[in-house]
Automatic annotation (TrEMBL):
PROSITE patterns for the chain: GNAT
A Pfam entry, by short name: Acetyltransf_1
Protein name, entry field: Ribosomal-protein-alanine acetyltransferase
InterPro entries: AcTrfase_RimI/Ard1 (IPR006464), Acyl_CoA_acyltransferase (IPR016181), Bact_Acetyltransf (IPR050832), GNAT_dom (IPR000182)
Domain N-acetyltransferase: 8-155
GO molecular function, one term: N-acetyltransferase activity
């Protein structure tokens, strides 16, 4: 993994970001993207939900975004999406690191997420960040693919 260069600033998502988030969502997950209503619902669920976007100055649209559910001592990664044109430069790791920071700030001691069993790139990212398999949800996705439930313990 390479470091994002030049660095991509992360900022909290706003309502105005929804069209660009939807474009990233459709490009990143063409088989089962979230729809506009789902993104509106996620942002409406603040402060329990925290969403960040990666937006480079002068860049059309967003390069990625990620969201977290902050309920109790275990936070849940709701989504992490990087536009295919921005992949391979460490942006997923940058977004995931920010989610970890937000979880710690909210008092969480662990983070859970689900990943498609066939998403090798994401699985390598999560393994490199200390996530471990908790269980498999068989045929979880509409396509019939399994979901792997992963957990990471957060250090103070």
């Amino acid at each position: 993994m390479s470091v994002v260069s030049p660095p991509v600033p992360l900022r909290p998502a706003t309502w105005r970001d929804i069209p660009a988030m939807l474009a990233v969502e459709r490009a990143a997950f063409p088989d089962e993207p979230w729809d506009e209503a789902a993104l509106w619902s996620e942002l409406a669920s603040r402060p329990r939900r925290a969403y960040v976007v990666a937006a480079r100055e002068g860049h059309d649209g967003l390069e990625g975004y990620a969201g977290l559910d902050l309920a109790g001592d275990v936070a849940d990664v709701m989504t992490l999406a990087v536009h295919p044109g921005s992949r391979g430069r460490g942006l997923g790791a940058l977004l995931l690191g920010r989610l970890h920071d937000l979880a710690r700030e909210a008092g969480a001691t662990g983070v859970l997420l689900e990943v498609r069993s066939g998403n090798e790139v994401a699985r390598r990212l999560y393994a490199a960040r200390g996530y471990q398999l908790v269980r498999t949800r068989e045929r979880y996705y509409r396509s019939g693919e399994d979901a792997l439930v992963l957990r990471k313990e957060l250090l103070p």
